Amino acid sequence: KRVEKKAILPEELNQDYVIEAFKSFKEMRDRMKKPLTQRGAELIIVDLMKHSAGDPVVAAKILEQSVKNGWQGVFPLKDNRPKGRIDWDAI
Fold it and tell me: Which of 40, 71, 75, 81 lies closest to 59, judged by CA?
């Protein structure tokens, strides 16, 4: 009988809201019929650490972005600002 290990988040990301976002990501993958393997979960966590620089708030937003867009992986946060417009507040 195989024992499924749980992916353990690094200490920096071990926050309730990140854990919930990771659960949502795993559930979304299950619904897509592309469940995470143990190794897949470990690699997602490595990418999550890289893209969030260890910031738990950013990590949760990255996971939420992937769930919202139905992505199988995690990617840096997209810049959703309109392109071609002048940001007068920044001047």
Answer: 75
